[in-house]
Design the sequence.
């Protein structure tokens, strides 16, 4: 999409211009201000929520009818869940049943964040992200949440609420939005800009309604009242969410940290709103646990900025900076310093280019038009006037930085005087890949600066003191650590206890556990909602099962062996000795003896199987061949290749057209 087209599309869909101003969606009722319309929904008409602006009850005063309470104890008034001025615009109302909250992902893993908040007739989904695959998931692109639980509840889904624009929180939307019946999506301007770009790739933009919110908006979805508060993260426009129901108030922090001097034009978190929640009888706090084992506070972006300034100012040769494309505020700093020290910026990496386009159109990045260019146009720019901004900080196989380190990038070759800055820390599991890239860059003559040498990166997640501050300000009855591996969440749990919360009020749950809240009290029901891995492989979603992964793993470790049996299709007799084809198993020219024995064994298994049962089905015969050959090969050379029997049924002379029989009937 060209920048002109992108500008027009974002203006219409997110900035409220053009056709978006002409009519409100069906079901919307104006209050303090009209609900901003979004795209028409093809699948069904979702009622739009009531939407009002301002934060009358966030500035420190208590909502009406909400008395104070003792620390981490005492009951909850169900009525405390309601904002004083919000009305139900959808026409939906439900009795005082329980509120159910379920994590479909994000627990015991980093990624796939998705939580369900369910009242009797109204369901809200908070985030819908994907997870990158483990190393043994060969050929898999992403893992997305299992939404089977919602299959018969689609008519009750009022919307998807997004905390921020990172793909581990929004990346699964294009894969799942149609299955869920196209519920409307609510997020801040930048978040929806990123989501919109992904939906455009899938051809879904005209079928999805997106509503832009700010941290000052209050929304009503049937029995749910929703408000927001600004937090700091490594991407702008991140918010926490407050969800109020007749059975309690629930705070979802999203990914957050507290930064008093954030990068760029970002502002600090809204401490006034967050601390006001401490007087509003919050039932449960669902809080980010990623850095729960790191002491102190997370370092400010201001410190990173000073170091980047020094590097760009003092380096004599080219500077290559690898960073996450979503680190928009840091990228703004890099642009500012490049302009300050008269360097042109060249972009390498598709995701980096796309994110920069969206952020610039929406006003989150500001730089002169002639400052930034595609790396393909670098030409003979003087080294001291060159800064290359690239993807690949995690050592991804096909990323720009990895290709640069291997010497096969189409336009960028490492020179002796180059300085490479990796402005990121490795995500758990990526350490080996990142180390390999660093080694290769050093071999080519580059000077490499990373976070173990200089503070060129800081986390977007709060450390222990940040998490304790959030707990203290929100003052919840229950703490439910989310977003992270079990040991991370356990560490977060311990922080709650250190602050005086009773052990029974620090709640550890797993993906799929159902938390039921009624009158401000929690009950873990024992019910288990499906949370299986749904695997994305190319254009296929959910069609890769465990057996396929096991086969791929087997082939990667031990290779594959194809056993071809040619049969007379009338008599079921072998027309010739079994043919053996090896791939990644053994080099056949050097292991003729093994191949000969495998062929003989395959023939023996066939003869024995047919003598015992002449009408043996082809599936049973292939299973006998697999089991028998696996045992024989392991006994001979202690390997377990993937064995693929193929049975070809031919005419009498064996020269006619073969009729392969690969099915299991």
Sequence:
């Amino acid at each position: 999409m060209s920048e002109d087209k992108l500008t027009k599309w974002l203006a219409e869909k997110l900035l409220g211009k053009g056709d978006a101003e002409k009519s409100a969606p069906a079901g919307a009722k104006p209050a303090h201000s009209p609900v901003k319309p979004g795209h028409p929904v093809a699948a069904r008409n979702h009622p739009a929520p009531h939407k009002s602006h301002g934060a009358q009850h966030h500035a420190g005063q208590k909502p009406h009818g909400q008395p104070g309470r003792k620390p981490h104890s005492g009951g909850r008034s169900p009525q405390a869940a309601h904002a004083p001025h919000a009305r139900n615009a959808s026409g939906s109302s439900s009795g005082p049943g329980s509120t159910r909250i379920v994590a479909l992902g994000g627990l015991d893993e980093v990624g796939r964040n998705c939580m369900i908040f369910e009242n009797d007739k109204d369901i809200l989904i908070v985030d819908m992200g994907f997870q990158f695959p483990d190393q043994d998931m060969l050929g898999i692109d992403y893992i997305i949440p299992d939404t089977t639980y919602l299959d018969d509840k689609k008519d009750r889904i009022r919307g998807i609420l997004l905390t921020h624009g990172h793909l581990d929180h929004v990346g699964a939307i294009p894969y799942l939005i149609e299955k869920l019946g196209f519920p409307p999506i609510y997020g801040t301007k930048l978040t929806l800009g990123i989501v919109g770009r992904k939906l455009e790739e899938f051809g879904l933009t005209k079928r999805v309604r997106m509503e832009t919110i700010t941290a000052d908006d209050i929304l009503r979805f049937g029995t749910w009242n929703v408000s927001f508060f600004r937090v700091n993260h490594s991407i702008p426009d991140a918010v926490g969410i407050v969800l109020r129901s007749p059975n309690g108030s629930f705070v979802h922090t999203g990914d957050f940290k507290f930064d008093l001097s954030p990068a760029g034009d970002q502002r600090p978190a809204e401490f006034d709103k967050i601390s006001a929640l401490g007087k509003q009888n919050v039932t449960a706090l669902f809080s980010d646990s990623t850095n729960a084992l790191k002491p102190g506070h997370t370092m400010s972006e201001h410190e990173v900025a000073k170091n980047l300034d020094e590097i760009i100012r003092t380096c004599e040769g080219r500077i290559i900076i690898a960073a996450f494309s979503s680190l928009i505020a840091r990228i703004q700093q890099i642009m500012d310093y490049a302009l300050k020290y008269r360097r042109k910026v060249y972009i390498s990496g598709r995701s980096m280019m796309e994110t920069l386009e969206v952020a610039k159109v929406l006003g989150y990045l500001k730089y002169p038009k002639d400052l930034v260019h595609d790396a393909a146009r670098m030409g003979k720019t003087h080294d001291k006037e060159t800064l290359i901004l690239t993807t690949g900080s995690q050592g991804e196989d096909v990323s720009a930085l990895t290709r640069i380190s291997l010497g096969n990038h189409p336009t960028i070759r490492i020179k002796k005087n180059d300085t490479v800055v990796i402005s990121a820390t490795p995500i758990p599991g990526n350490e080996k890949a990142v180390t390999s890239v660093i080694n290769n860059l050093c071999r080519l003559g580059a000077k490499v600066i990373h976070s173990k040498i200089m503070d060129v990166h800081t986390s977007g997640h709060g450390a222990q003191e940040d998490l304790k501050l959030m707990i203290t300000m929100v003052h919840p009855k229950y703490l439910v650590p989310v977003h992270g591996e079990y040991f991370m969440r356990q560490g977060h749990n311990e922080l709650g206890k250190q602050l005086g919360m009773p052990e029974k009020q620090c709640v550890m749950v797993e993906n799929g556990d159902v938390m039921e809240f009624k009158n401000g009290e929690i009950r873990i029901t024992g019910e288990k909602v499906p949370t299986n891995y749904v695997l994305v492989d190319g254009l296929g979603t959910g069609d890769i099962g465990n057996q396929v992964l096991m086969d791929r793993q087997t082939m990667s470790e031990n290779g594959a062996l194809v056993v071809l049996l040619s049969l007379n299709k009338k008599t079921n007799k072998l027309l010739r000795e079994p043919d053996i084809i090896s791939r990644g198993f053994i080099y056949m020219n050097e292991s003729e003896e093994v191949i000969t024995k495998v062929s003989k064994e395959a023939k023996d298994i066939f003869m024995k199987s047919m003598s015992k049962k002449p009408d043996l089905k082809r599936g049973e015969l292939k299973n006998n061949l697999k089991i028998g050959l696996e045992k024989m090969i392991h006994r001979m050379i202690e390997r377990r290749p993937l064995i693929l029997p193929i049975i070809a049924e031919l005419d009498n002379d064996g020269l006619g057209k073969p009729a392969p029989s690969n099915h299991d009937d």
About this structure: The longest helix spans residues 592-612. Confidence is low (pLDDT under 50) at residues 17-45, 54-95, 656-665.
